[in-house]
Amino acid sequence: MNKKFLIAGAIFGLLGVIIGAFAAHGLKPLISQESFQSFETGVKYQMYHALFLLILGGWNFLSQKLKDATFYLLVFGITFFSGSIYLLATNNLTNIDFRSIALVTPLGGSLLIIGWLLVLISILKLKKK
């Protein structure tokens, strides 16, 4: 069991519920339907990856080096991907133009993909043993 993964998964899950509830009950009337759907996408991906972190926290098939790499890829991926979507979706509510960070979203998505890829490679190597 890896406590670091479990704590991060629980924190991202908790924040996902809070942010999702805030969006559904307070934010929805303030932004366009398209922006709201984007915001929901950020919440969904945050929750998916929070659950993934919890699952990985209970598995012991990854080497420590791979665990560390996967952990940071997922944490930064969630933060960049979902966080940038939250900011971009609420862009019209602030005096700050968040469109300048738009390239952070695909970077975050790429980090998430690489994290999943590392786990997949580890699983495929298990079959060879």
TrEMBL record:
Its main location: membrane. PANTHER family: TRANSMEMBRANE PROTEIN 256. It is found in: Membrane. Pfam families: DUF423. Keywords: Membrane, Transmembrane, Transmembrane helix. It comes from the Bacteria. This is DUF423 domain-containing protein. The chain crosses the membrane at residues 47-62, 69-89, 101-124. It comes from Autumnicola musiva. InterPro entries: DUF423.
